[in-house]
Amino acid sequence: MGEIQKYKDLIGRRVADDELEELAIDLLKAAISNNGNWAGLWDGVLARILELPPEARSRIADGLATQYHSEQAGPNARENALVLLGIVSRGLPPHNRLSAERLALLDKVSRQHSFWYGARYENLIEAELAAGRPIAPAVVATVRRAVLHAYQNEDLPRTAKKLTEPPLNVGEEWAEEALRETDPVWRQLLSHMATATAAKPSAKWDKQATELAGALGPDRVRETMLPWLALVGRPRTFELERGTYEPDVNSAFDPYNANALRGVAWLLSLLPPHPDTARALGALVETSLRKVAGLGPRNPKVANAGVNALARIDSEAALAELARLATRVTYKNTAKLLDAALEARAVALGLSREEIEELAVPAYGLTGVGHAEHRLGEATAVLEVQGTKAVLTWRNASGRPVRTVPAAVRRDHAEELKELKAAVKDIDRMLSAQSERLDRQFLADRTWSYATWRERYLDHPLVGTLARRLLWTVDGTTVGYTPKAPCARSPTPRSPTARTSACGTRWATSPPRSWPGATGWNATE
What we know:
This protein is of the alpha+beta class. The protein is built from 24 helices and 11 strands. A 5-stranded mixed β-sheet has the order 7-11-8-9-10, covered by helices on one side. It is elongated. The model is unreliable at 485-525 (pLDDT under 50).
């Protein structure tokens, strides 16, 4: 406190004695005392300077420029001189004092994740804006991240509000892909996405988002945005400098862009339901919860936004994603949101939570238990569940297996092929989730009617691949499912459907040797 008052008094004496160039040296000494941090009570010293007449401040600016070039000045002194020059010159006519050196310091700032507000780097940016020069996007990104600190001065957010371009921060692959949209409506939509700072969207936010999306077309918005989400979590396009004890900022989400990701999730939930949307939102939740060294989950707020978005979508695919995530997510707050979303859906349908989880499992195009065939032109795609994995194989027009996707399918059925490959990934993820759910059911000791059990477990196209490998208790008897012995081949082979119908199934009171360890539930006639 005494040192701060000393410099306030010194300013008065230097001005009275017309020693303004010497005052520049005094300010640099003050910067050494406060380590370049002009926060708190030190702000009063700067306020005294800004109260001086323009002519006096101009002479102090000249003195700072002189000290910058002095032989005694080291790197810290030069940085302090540039910052002080920006402060002293605020409101003065534009001048090119140390402009090249200021740009070099801003380039250094652009490689930082953020900065402490006491560094007063916003004055460097104000000087550039006063000179009519644009601010580099990477610098804009650093300033926006710095504003999100819990502590800040009034000048920093005021400067940040002037930096409207680009609407998203550069440095993340998904954001840079989004910034390639140059249509003014798209830019407005991106800017609106970045305002998603609350836990849930307001009616006003939804209305504006819907209007902007409507101007572009809902299908176009969905088809454009979903590929962005596929890029979330990829390595940064350029790395930021990381302090010795800082978390891995290069693996975390940019906090400014994280708000925009929340907005993207909310907006997608306002569009007509689509399986691709639910799939992308589920993946966003998982990506957002992956752990980063020194930080924990990447961004739980984005994960929660993804859950809230899925809960707002009235579709089977969205419900399936909620049920799948409920078996996978361990982060407490997000898990609570998932539980609440499933409970709300259960209450709305008059069902129990367990029944909702059972009914939420899609077939993913499987027409039999663990099997489906799709005719694409002259080729046939065979989708099968083998163990805990989905496998996609191909047969040519003559029915012979081929190793790769036929060229005609790639050329003429690209969308169907894309959907099949997506189904394979969905089945793999859901099989893992259902395996964990079945483990929980064992602990719950649940009981079903025989017809319900057959429908939701034994004969379900996807769950059946797991259920038929387990032991069950039916009316007090432990049983397991197994195919009948192979039928004798007839001279004229029957179709797969006919063979299945002819061979049927039987119940075994003990499992084959290849079965896994016994697990039991109840099913009653």
